[in-house]
Design goal:
With 650 residues, the chain is of the alpha+beta class. It has 16 helices and 39 strands. A hairpin with a 5-residue loop joins β13 and β14.
């Protein structure tokens, strides 16, 4: 069946990625979108776009959109309905081509408990586990509580002892039900020093089943991948071959068609590997496989779903170089990776030759709480692993990005970390190595960025000057103090002073000679103490963002006369992000200890426990369960007890 028109039942960078390949094949592309996405790039890039009355989980509305646009096929992307067997069945029933494996395979692999049984039948090694949550003794500690449905790190909790098991099961069940509509969980042995290795497979309806090598996806936070690479630097050729054979056995057992991924846990100490799950869809990290093999996986998916054969053989497959992908998220690594929201004021990727940007956003996009906070995938491909890591770090640093908190600086810290470059990338890498959560700058680097910002503001003032605009900046007919600008950086006030010189240059902070070579509304070329650089600049009503060699440095603009601020009662705990109050665990008058969970917020399908920062007494609850909150809203008031007050003053 030839595909002339393709509807992509997804959003953001996922939809844009699929459009790119489909359009190159001469296929008309259709987008569906929710109201929150009405102005996003993927909607504008589609040949046709259909608004969904509810959301991306509305199967009936998506199929109606496909019929209205005469779409021959539906590609589910990844996430949302991509592993929903009911959706696949409904698409087929409507006479529309489903781009993916059969509904029966999706259904079997969507249940992780059932998938482990099938893996056992295929003689693929599995970890000790139990679907009876009371049967923890047969699994042993540490163990992992896992959702039976879904993925993406949701509904998962590491448990070290029996005392923590009940709480972990309850939290995992709530999160799983909220994310997947299925609260079932099971217990599985947890291996602390392990790696997450997955094998890409591809099958067609003509009996061909191939593998495209492995990916390592061990750098994770909250059990979600943030850096992936291919090939793995840790496994031997023998282990690589054994894992590929196991993946193919699993695929053969399923009569697998389309692109899929067989995931394994690799014990770094013993070299043993164990089956985790099969993802019956395209993976977020598929670009690293595409980079080293030269195979377009979306193209192969579309060919297979049209009844064609895979366009290459196992013998044709050649692996060249090393590829690494970083997931750029709107989140705050310094606050346990809490999701962040806001308007993107600047998004200007660098134009490095070995870098691929799969982005779902642009300047002006708004990141809310409705969807996963991933902004883009950034992929490097180089002759070797070190070059791939450093090239990717450099590209991330050159990205001019402003308007909301992201994990960009954290990613570059990981990529440049000595142990990462050594290939010591087990799943506990972040906990063991504590990469810097935010950009680290010297005082001199901060001062240079502040000088650049001030010089740009000076240029803006000159450009907008109406009175005496022909007179040189800073000209006076008498001796007057230097001009001064006040900026805020990391909650610290910086004062930057400058005087103009007769030759047109400036003296900043009574010591540094600065020359302005070029000024525009978007950038500035300046020479500070003989060092000449060009910096992208973005200004908003309250901030100015300067691009430096290490990343984007942001400054708050402090007005000469500051208005009185909003007063928050002493002892208040505030919402660290927008979200919904899922559960309140305390009442006024309760005595609590440092670390106790006071309430639970839900944002982006993830639970976030608000814990007591110190011992104290809850004096007032300021919110209600199920209440939707904005960032910074006071939640409750916690007064210090006499003992904690005494400890604080000691």
């Amino acid at each position: 069946m030839t595909i002339n028109t393709l509807l992509v039942a997804n959003r953001g960078e996922i939809a844009r990625r699929i459009f790119r390949t489909a359009k190159s094949m001469g296929i008309v592309c259709v987008a569906v979108y929710a109201d929150a996405d009405s102005n996003e790039p993927f909607v504008k890039e589609a040949d046709k776009s259909i608004r969904l009355p509810a959301n991306y989980l509305d199967i009936e509305a998506i199929i109606d959109a496909a019929k209205k646009t005469r779409s021959d096929a539906i590609h589910p992307g990844y996430g949302f309905l991509s592993e929903n067997a009911s959706f696949a069945k409904a698409v087929a029933k409507a006479g529309i081509n489903w781009v993916g494996p059969s509904p029966e395979v999706i259904e079997a692999m969507g249940d992780k408990i059932e998938a482990k049984k099938i893996a056992h039948e295929a003689e693929v090694p599995t970890l000790p586990s139990s679907d009876n949550v009371k049967d923890f003794s047969s699994v042993g500690f540490p163990l992992l509580v896992k959702a039976a449905a879904g993925g993406g790190g949701k509904g998962m909790r590491i448990v070290e002892s029996e005392n923590d098991l009940k709480e972990a099961i309850s939290a995992a069940q709530r999160e799983a039900k909220n994310a997947f509509g299925d609260e079932r969980v099971f217990l599985e042995r947890y291996i602390p020093k392990s790696r997450h290795i997955e094998v890409q497979i591809l099958g067609d309806s003509h009996g061909n089943l191939l593998h495209l090598g492995e990916r390592e996806c061990s750098i994770q936070r909250r059990h979600q991948k943030i850096i992936e690479e291919s090939p793995s630097s840790a496994i031997s050729e023998e282990q690589r071959s054994l894992m590929a054979e196991a993946a193919l056995r699993m695929g053969e057992n399923l009569a697998y068609q389309s692109a899929g991924t067989v995931e394994f846990l690799f014990d770094d100490e013993t070299g043993d590997f164990f089956f985790l799950e099969v993802n019956t869809r395209l993976q977020v990290e598929h670009p690293v496989t595409e980079a080293i093999t030269g195979i377009d996986l979306v193209r192969e998916q579309l060919r297979v779903s049209s009844g064609e054969r895979i366009s290459f053989t196992q013998e044709d497959l050649k692996v060249e170089g090393h590829a690494i992908e970083a997931r750029l998220y709107a989140e705050d690594p310094a606050k346990d990776f809490l999701p962040a929201t806001g308007k993107i004021l600047a998004f200007s990727p660098s134009d490095e030759t070995n870098i691929r940007w799969d982005s779902g956003v642009e300047k002006g996009s708004f990141v809310g709480v409705e969807f996963d906070p991933m902004l883009a995938k950034v992929i490097s491909h180089s002759p070797n692993r070190d070059e791939a890591a450093l090239t990717l770090a450099n590209a991330l640093e050159k990205l001019h990005l402003a308007g909301l908190t992201t994990n960009r600086d954290f990613l570059t810290s990981v990529l440049r970390h000595e142990r990462f470059l050594e290939g010591k990338t087990t799943t506990d890498f972040i906990e063991d190595n504590s990469p810097e959560p935010k950009l680290q700058l010297t005082e001199d680097e901060i001062e240079s960025a502040a000088i650049t910002a001030t010089l740009w503001l000076q240029g803006k003032n000159r450009k907008n000057s109406i009175v005496l605009s022909s007179i040189p900046s800073g000209w006076r007919n008498g001796r007057l103090p230097a001009q001064e600008v006040s900026l805020l950086h990391d909650e610290e006030k910086l004062s930057v002073s400058y005087k103009s010189r007769r030759d047109g240059s400036f003296v900043f902070n009574d010591k540094k000679i600065v020359t302005l070579h070029k000024w525009s509304t978007e950038d500035i070329e300046a020479e500070i103490e003989g060092e000449r650089t060009t910096s992208l600049i973005t200004e908003s009503a309250e901030t100015i963002h300067v691009q430096t060699i290490k990343g984007t440095v942001s400054f708050g603009l402090i007005p000469r006369f500051e208005p009185p601020g909003f007063q928050i009662a002493e002892g208040s705990l505030v919402a660290p992000m927008p979200g919904i109050v899922l559960e309140i665990r305390v009442s006024p008058g309760d005595n609590v200890s440092a670390g106790d969970t006071l309430l639970i917020l839900e944002a982006m399908k993830m639970e976030n426990h608000i814990k007591a920062p110190h011992d104290g007494i809850v004096t007032e609850i300021l919110v209600d369960e199920s209440q939707q909150l904005e960032n910074g809203v006071p939640l409750l008031i916690l007064d210090l007890t006499e003992d904690s007050e005494r400890s604080k003053n000691d």
